[in-house]
Batch of 2 targets.
Target 1
Amino acid sequence: MNKLFFLSFLYCNAYGFENLTNKFIQVDEHGNKTNAKLKRINCLRKCLRLTNCMYVAFEFRDCSFFSSFESFKFFSPNEIDLYRKVESKRPNLVYYWVVQNAKIKEIMNKNDLYTPSNMFYTSDRFGKSNSSFHLDNGYVILPPIDKLDIAFTILAWVKLHSYKDNQRLLDFGNGERSDNIIISLSGLQTSLYFYIYHGSTKYSINSNLILPLFNWHHLGFVVTGGSSYIYLNGSLLLHKNHNVSNIIRKINRTKSYIGKSNWASNPNVDSEFDDIKIYNGVLTQYEIKDEYLSNFL
Ligand SMILES: *[C@@H]1O[C@H](CO)[C@@H](O)[C@H](O)[C@H]1NC(C)=O
Ligand SMILES: *[C@@H]1O[C@H](CO)[C@@H](O)[C@H](O)[C@H]1NC(C)=O
Ligand SMILES: *[C@@H]1O[C@H](CO)[C@@H](O)[C@H](O)[C@H]1NC(C)=O
Ligand SMILES: *[C@@H]1O[C@H](CO)[C@@H](O)[C@H](O)[C@H]1NC(C)=O
Ligand SMILES: *[C@@H]1O[C@H](CO)[C@@H](O)[C@H](O)[C@H]1NC(C)=O
Ligand SMILES: *[C@@H]1O[C@H](CO)[C@@H](O)[C@H](O)[C@H]1NC(C)=O
């Protein structure tokens, strides 16, 4: 069953399902259908109407619905066809910094990092050497971040080395209080937080989370409309509705950093990082959990 879980999914624009053994089928498929096939399609249609139905499993001619892969695994008969629901608007990976063999590359748009300060290559969470990077009270500069939509998802693996208030995972903006997207890792006064500035208006989520040091943790941050979310290791940690319809502007952010703040008084970061990914659009909690559990690029 594990094998199924680790298969990468095709990204499709249609509303439908993916056969987790790799065949995509659309619910509105035309043509002459056998009874078994018709029955199957009716099952999938029913799942589409249920917002909490994410997976459909078939055994002989019966189907069962599941809200998560975990619940399917709990049920988990051996030979079974499993389908996963595909939303019509798939999130689109726009920035992805990959570290390998002591090199870091942004593979989606060639937004490679530059002017590293106190940056070292180190082992990733699987123990593979030179496959993640350590900013030892350091930072790197990013090219202007100009491809972000007003709904996005940021994911990253982090391994904190010390607590410092306001140390940044990232700060994308145009200076202080200027359309910033800020993720700050644990300090002693300030726990992990996620701030968005709409111009100079701040929309914040402050967590109570003090990340344990010297351990890899997977973090997720989502903005959509007037809401923002923080995920830890694939589970929702916090959610806030900010009472406005939109908390962010689509704008070119020319002062964008990993590890460094747009506020000169803040310290540089002391942490290792890996697999920093930014998607336009919202990943569901199932997709974020998949990212947390996955062991492939
Ligand atoms: C799912 O895909 C596999 C591999 O392509 C195929 O053998 C199987 O018949 C498919 N199942 C259905 C229900 O389409
Ligand atoms: C569908 O297929 C069955 C058997 O293959 C055939 O008897 C029937 O006439 C077909 N129906 C249509 C509408 O083509
Ligand atoms: C890591 O990268 C450095 C710089 O390229 C190299 O000197 C070193 O041998 C590499 N270490 C391993 C274990 O691959
Ligand atoms: C997150 O998951 C990793 C294993 O993947 C674990 O080592 C770490 O302790 C978890 N972090 C928290 C805060 O639970
Ligand atoms: C949030 O919006 C509602 C409806 O517009 C309003 O009644 C309420 O006072 C607002 N709350 C805050 C904290 O602004
Ligand atoms: C963002 O700003 C940079 C630097 O001013 C510029 O080179 C780039 O073309 C801008 N991007 C867009 C989409 O305007």
Target 2
Amino acid sequence: MSNKQTRLPRPVETERTPLKARKVSFSWEDTPLHWVPGDPFATHTINVLHLLLPAGERWFVHVYKQVLPHIRDDRLREDVIGFIGQEAMHSQAHDEVLPHLKELGLDPTPYTAQVDWLFEKLLGDRTLPPGKARKWWLMERVAIIAAIEHYTAFLGNWVLNAQELDRRGADPTMLDLLRWHGAEEVEHRSVAFELFMHVDGSYRRRARTWATAFTALVFLWQRGARFFMENDPTLAAGRASFKDFYVSGKRGVLPSTPDMLKSIPRYLSRGYHPSQEGSTEQAVAYLASSPAATAASAAEKGTV
Ligand SMILES: [Fe+2]
Ligand SMILES: [Fe+2]
């Protein structure tokens, strides 16, 4: 176990939010294929989340269950357990969008089969003997998750503030799914990084796994957007390019490319701490007003 957490930069916010999974559910029957009206490219670029997150977040949960015995801090263990509950719910909620896309003529299975292979086989447990090799692979995956969570927090913060989507009349159910998820990503944004610093914390590993995670995310995302655009039954010659992404970012319907580039040196800075990104206050305020989260909380209290 490393003692490198003594070098961990102090979080910006000292208030700690106990993490709990909100058992949300969404009805998709009224959500149109192009839920950002008139903008299939922005719709499908965001839809890539539904392709990657079910398998990706299931994999987070799988890895974190293995790391629990390595945690020597009760508060962090509690946070990791809360994180596991939230990610399991996120995975399920995005998975439930896929049958609706299929009904609208967009069968995601050819793509999700590849994503499942990536997370279950390539990033799976592998047949490693107990000991050093197995521990190395576990730490590598914990570091990859910390890097991915830098981007889920970035995206969560973006979608909470993406008022252009409201102005364009984006589907309220999809917006609530994205903002409920985004708010919980902001809420638990420090957990993966603090866990990595607690069990390993090596800067070389942080930088190396950031490069792996970033490259994989860019590759999977552009491929997923192209997959949706090419298979959209309403588009004669649907295409997706980096220029479209850049332009949509400038218009505010997708994250901006300069903002994404600026987030890279932040993660690689030795003074980085995820609490410097986004606002817990804003995330908690959204969760207090989210239709799905408030319905889940009322159901839990037995008031509906
Ligand atoms: Fe998530
Ligand atoms: Fe997360």
